Amino acid sequence: MNQVEILREWVLNSNNIVFFGGAGVSTESNIPDFRSVDGLYNQEYAYPPETILSHSFYQRHTDEFYRFYKKKMIFKEAKPNAAHLALARLEEQGKLKAVITQNIDGLHQMAGSREVLELHGSVHRNYCTRCGKFYDADYILESKGIPLCECGGIIKPDVVLYEEGLDYGTMQKAISYIAAADVLIIGGTSLTVYPAAGLVDYYRGRKLVLINKGATPMDSRADLVIAEPIGKTLQIFLE
Predict the structure, then answer these.
(1) Which domain holds residue 65?
(2) Which of 110, 132, 135, 216 could form a disulfide with 191 if both were Cys (CB 3.0 to 4.6 A apart)?
(3) Coil, helix or strand for 183?
(4) Does 137 appear as a known binding residue?
C-alpha cells in the first residue's frame, strides 16, 4: 500500500479526524504562502513584511500598514481548492470533527466547513477600535487610506499581528480537539511558527499524518509523511 492508500484507509476507518493546516493549503487557490521561494516574505518592500504586520508598526504607521495589508493580505478573487472542498465533505460525512487553521482567508468556510478554528483570525472580520462595530473585507478594500468607522474610530483587522497573542479560547478548543483525535492530519505548514506549531504536542494517537511539499521538523515523529501538494493529495476524497 502506498502512502495515499494508507491515508485513505485511515480516513475510511475513522470518525474522529482533526485537520491542522497552514499557508500551503491556500497556495493552490493562488494565495502566496509566507516562506516559500516565491512567497510573500521573499518580495522586496521598504520594510520587511514581518515588521509591517506587527502590532507596533500598525500603531505607529497605520497608513503604511494598510497600504501593504490591502494589497498583499486580502485576496477577494480566491476560491476554495480541492483541499478545502475535501475537508468540508469529510466533515459533512461525520468523519472530520474540526479544521484548525493558521490562515486568515476564510476559504474553509467558503468551501462549506462549519467547525473552523482560526488561530490567526480572519481578513473578513474587522472592527472599530472605538465602538466595536464590525466591517467586512470589502469595506476595508474600498476605503481610502486608513479605514474609519462611522463613529470616527480606526478600524483594525481581526487578525493576529506579530507581537500579539493568540486567542486563549480558540487555542484551548484546538487543544481539546487534537488531544481527543484518532487521526490528526497536518497539511501545508512548515510547523515552524509557534505557539501554533506546538499544538502537535497535544496529539496522543498513533495516526499522525504530515502532508507538505517540503520537509518539516516533525517528519520523524509522523506515522505517515506525504511530500505532495495538499490539494492533490486530498483530491481522493472528492472522487
Answers:
(1) 37-74+123-159
(2) 216
(3) strand
(4) no
